[in-house]
Amino acid sequence: MSASIYVPIDSAALALGADEVASEISLEAKRRGIEIKIVRNGSRGMFWLEPLVEVETSKGRIAYGPVEAKDVKGLFDAGFESGGKHDLCLGLTEEIPYLKKQERLTFARVGIIDPFSLEDYLAREGYQGLRRAISLSSEGIVQEVTESGLRGRGGAAFPTGIKWNTVMKAQADQKYVVCNADEGDSGTFADRMLMEGDPYSLIEGMTIAALAVGATEGYIYVRSEYPHAIAALNKAISIAKDAGYLGQDILESGKAFELEVRKAAGAYVCGEETAMLESIEGKRGIVRAKPPLPALSGLFGKPTVINNVISLATVPVILARGAEFYKRYGMGRSRGTLPFQLAGNIKQGGLIEKAFGVTLREMLYDFGGGSASGRPIKAVQVGGPLGSYLPESQWDVAMDYEEYSAIWAVLGHGGIVVHDETADLARLARYAMDFCAIESCGKCTPCRIGSVRGVEVMDRIIEGKERTRQIGLLRELCDTMLNGSMCAMGGMTPYPVLSALNHFPGDFGVAGERHA
Amino acid sequence: MKEPADKIADLAAKHRDRPGALLPLLHAIQDEMGYIPPESASIIASALNLSSAEVQGVITFYHYFRTEPSSIPRVEICCAESCQSMGSDKLLAHARTVCDVHPVYCLGLCASSPAMMVDEKPYARVTPEKFDSIMKKAAS
């Protein structure tokens, strides 16, 4: 029997040379007359070890990493195709503490299976959720999702079941399911990894959503910066359709669901759900006023379920194993798990799926191993470019939606960006305003003009011109943006700005006067 | 050889009946021609029954759409927070001495910052030295 060798096809692995490693392995095997089978899997999410090559043995998969093309000869010399010893050998993949300490429910298959093999997917609980959903009524599906406690993983944390219930009850000739895959937050890559590593789970989740609310068409809106994810989804959709998992008669249930990928065009604000709908309709991505809620009047004016990739891809496991199983994880009103993404200046960055309640300190040190530079960590931004900067005094707060909101921070989409002591928080605050100015859709004044004024005020603070007065202005401006903006773009830009000012006043040239 | 205007009209005819046709159509034009030529707006407007101003508004709203031919290869360097924390400022300054660079905000490679893309091929943990060797390879 020929040895199975796994070389990831995830963008982050490709960015570190995985294609070159795969072709070198295949060439070298041919040269030596060794029969092997190369499987291109997703990433396990341990990016400091990518490209991570795995070999199937009788004991389980053995990992080698990070492998470069020039290491391949040596690996064959060591007999790695049967698990031989080598400096790059990391032992059994499942025993690597970074993975072993995780609670992978949504990411259970990512990095393990061939993303396009339906056989692999079915062998690991794939489509069991959909089969159960077909046996239930619409109300039954919505009830299961509601009881699981699942909340929107895109960042807003709205209860998924309640949203679905509104769409289910709406009367219309056409309803839609739209997946928001416009993952624009810096420091986040969970959506990308999932779409590239286990696309069927998203397709299955969307199909279940469609059955629950009575939708027959769906769109996945993917950012243009993710060409590999777009290609992976298109391929998976076509295979699923041929096998009867999508189309006019899903698994002979008589129910129809058609799915299409829409490529975004590089506007961060289109991650806001109503701007995204405008964009899919072929317009500028300008935020809509709410109400009406998209659940009642969404895409093309029809009732629409809009969920993030991770919310939808979590639905299959909830249906397959039941709400009771899922809600056993987590704390308080934050049930289940969140795929955290550890990034920036960190030694061991990657994807860490854990139940809510874990602390940032555990993330930074138990998983992350401290900063990449070796210098002390100064500030950590959680929840993307619109999330607060957390100083060390807040690293022991449980990562839970309500606990974070109590310290004026957000979990958002679970992105964690680490900065070491060389970071200048005044410059990062200026960047937050600048980013808002670049990306504002322009509809409301607090965001469109506030962000530009914010950059000017920050420039004067950095230059040291009448600092006390400028800081007063900055606080007033943030108050206007926070309370007067139409969406989170302008409404949350004050989070990074004010948290930087409040926790790191020294970087703004002022003494430590604390504000809540 | 087809004239650019004919190509645009053909693509518009092909996409016009899709719901929300404009974005996929603009992508198709840029994929085929490398950018959105100036004559596109009026041709698209008449095919999709929109005003030229609406079409022009959409073309200019989105950072991804280019109204001029792009430099070859197209180099995009991430300038968002995660890459900043790992020295993307230095990388950007270095790259700008070598070629035209388009700043982008997040390529989803944040655990291996700083990151860049050259003609849609991703690269991570890019140092100025690594940048030079990537560009050398891209040129050959």
Q: Can you walk me through this structure?
A:
- The complex is a heterodimer of chains A (516) and B (140).
- Chain A has helices at 11-14, 18-32, 72-77, 97-100, 118-123, 128-135, 138-148, 160-169, 190-197, 199-213, 227-242, 273-280, 309-321, 323-327, 360-367, 401-406, 425-439, 445-463, 467-484, 488-492, 494-503, and strands at 3-6, 36-39, 53-57, 60-64, 89-92, 176-181, 217-222, 258-263, 304-308, 330-331, 334-335, 337-344, 350-355, 377-382, 389-390, 415-420.
- Chain A has 516 residues and is of the alpha/beta class.
- Chain A folds into 4 domains: 3-100, Glutaredoxin (3-Layer(aba) Sandwich); 118-327, 3-Layer(aba) Sandwich (Rossmann fold); 330-420, Roll (Ubiquitin-like (UB roll)); 425-508, NADH-ubiquinone oxidoreductase 51kDa subunit, iron-sulphur binding domain (de novo design (two linked rop proteins)), CATH 1.20.1440.230.
- In chain A, the strands form 4 sheets. Chain A has a 5-stranded mixed beta sheet with strand order 2-1-3-4-5, covered by helices on one side. In chain A, strands 13-12-16-14-15 form a 5-stranded mixed beta sheet.
- In chain A, a hairpin with a 2-residue loop joins β10 and β11 (334-335).
- In chain A, α7 (138-148) packs across α10 and α17 packs antiparallel against α21.
- The model of chain A has no long low-confidence stretch (mean pLDDT 97).
- Chain B folds into 2 domains: 4-61, no CATH class; 75-139, Glutaredoxin, CATH 3.40.30.
- In chain B, strands 2-1-3-4 form a 4-stranded mixed beta sheet, covered by helices on one side.
- In chain B, α1 packs antiparallel against α2, α1 (4-15) runs parallel beside α3 (40-48) and α3 (40-48) crosses α4 (52-61).
- Chain B contains 7 helices and 4 strands.
- The longest helix of chain B is centred in the N-terminal third of the chain and has 12 residues, at 4-15.
- Chain B is of the alpha+beta class.
